[in-house]
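Work through what follows:
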Amino acid sequence: MSVSVNEKAFVEKNEIKLGEIAGIKGEDHVLVRKLKNIVIGKSPLPGKSRYIGNEYIKLRLKQNNIDLVQLVLTIPEKVKVTRNSIEISRKEIEKIVLDYIYGKEFWDKNNTRIKNIQFPKLPLLPKKRITYKIIPPKVMNGIGTIPLSIVFLADGEFYKKVKATVKIQIFKEVVVTKKPLGRYRTIAHDDVMMQKMDITNLPNDIITNFKDVLGKRVRRNIWAKVVLRAGYIEFPPLVKRGDTVLIVAESEKMKITALGEVRKAGRRGERVKVINLNSNKRIFARVVDENTVKVDF
């Protein structure tokens, strides 16, 4: 029975077996099979190598009850064992991320641009059936720099996690001023326009619907080409100081009305100070429309 160990060998599995690093010949097929299946040690990581000395190989044979006298052994002083590997390319990683982003309804492909995909280094994986899954962050707003974890599975079992970041730009139509608008100016159709912009670094309260600004007024002076935000505009007051309005006070059984004079401007639903012109008393009433205020019972 002859056992000739190679000076260099390549393995694919997690354990190094004698049959993977040596040529074994003999007429005793049972012994040949036993020798081939003897585990010499653990394999290195994919793409890495380890060295095994000849004395250690002999020790492993003895530990498996092999009589060395009956063997013709040829073993170099040390054996270099390298683990075969699969290298996932940068393009493959990028495709995994892009397929994930564009496969989610969360992102509209027509309005989404992937600006940058970063990860530490290309992973080396064992030569097995490789699959993967992506784990997103627990909280994700879908814009800006987003961390993703790519989990690689070898034959269905966890092998490696690669952390990547992707910078996402979202483009939307936003409402932009055409010209400077003075404080309290009521916004007309010709004052604003829709413009498609990268909203990655814009505040959350930007206005994306033309109808949401028409008829409202700006709360301060605004320059031209400014993206309008909810905090920049407001409904104009329905009543102003000095307006004469109808004061209504009613319950299920009765309704009382009187004329009043508004002492403070107010919008629909706001409580304003009103003087009852009949009694000259000051009361607070809620604005219903430009002609009516209502006292809360």
